[in-house]
Amino acid sequence: MNIEIVARQLEALGNETRLGIYLTLVRAGSGGLSVGQVQDRVGLAASTLSHHMKRLVDQGLVRQERSGTSLICNAEYPAMSALVGFLSDECCADELCAAETKAAS
């Protein structure tokens, strides 16, 4: 995963309101929620929700699809897994290199 993408996604999630919206969608599961349901759960004005949702969509963290007259929002679970995986894959990476260098001496 590209570090620039990771930085933009983390920046988007670094806002308390967007993180709350994202967690709401993650908890909703694969069925997602309509914009109205998200609005009810997070208690935001429609224009404020739209602003924050656009940022999450632009960063590939949320997907929106039309279903009749409703706009359904889903967390992009592969993007979430990639983001978390990127961070966990880096865990202690330099420590391993230090151990290999020490063993070679």
Q: Could you describe the 3D structure shown?
A:
This is Metalloregulator ArsR/SmtB family transcription factor. Keywords: DNA-binding, Transcription, Transcription regulation. Residues 1-95 form the HTH arsR-type domain. Pfam families: HTH_20. By secondary structure, the protein is α+β, with helices and mostly antiparallel strands. It has a single domain, classed as Arc Repressor Mutant, subunit A (Orthogonal Bundle), CATH 1.10.10. It contains six helices and three strands. The protein has helices spanning 3-13, 16-28, 35-42, 46-58, 77-89, 93-104, and strands at residues 33-34, 62-67, 70-75. Strands 1-3-2 form a three-stranded antiparallel sheet. A hairpin with a 2-residue loop joins strand 2 (62-67) and strand 3. Helix 2 (16-28) crosses helix 4. The protein is elongated. The two termini are 33 Å apart.
Features:
105 residues, alpha+beta, Arc Repressor Mutant, subunit A, three-stranded antiparallel beta sheet, 6 helices, 3 strands, 13% strand, elongated, transcription, transcription regulation, DNA-binding, HTH_ArsR_DNA-bd_dom, WH-like_DNA-bd_sf
Task: Detail the topology: elements first, then pairings.
Elements: H1 3-13, H2 16-28, E1 33-34, H3 35-42, H4 46-58, E2 62-67, E3 70-75, H5 77-89, H6 93-104
Antiparallel strand pairs: 1-3, 2-3
Helix pairs in contact: 2-4
The helix-and-strand class reads: alpha+beta
At CATH level 2, the architecture is Orthogonal Bundle
Uncertain residue ranges: none
Give the strand content.
5-15%
**Oligomeric status of the shown chains?**
single chain
In total, the number of strands is 3
Q: Note the gap between the termini.
A: 33 Å
In CATH, the homologous superfamily goes by the name Winged helix-like DNA-binding domain superfamily/Winged helix DNA-binding domain
Mean pLDDT: 92
CATH hierarchy class name: Mainly Alpha
The helix count comes to 6
Number of domains: 1
Please state the overall shape, judged from the principal axes of the Cα atoms.
Answer: elongated
Rg for CA atoms:
18 Å
Return the CATH topology: Arc Repressor Mutant, subunit A
Q: Taking strands numbered 1, 2, ... along the chain, how are they ordered across the largest sheet?
A: 1-3-2
Largest sheet: 3 strands, antiparallel
Percent of residues in helices: 55-70%
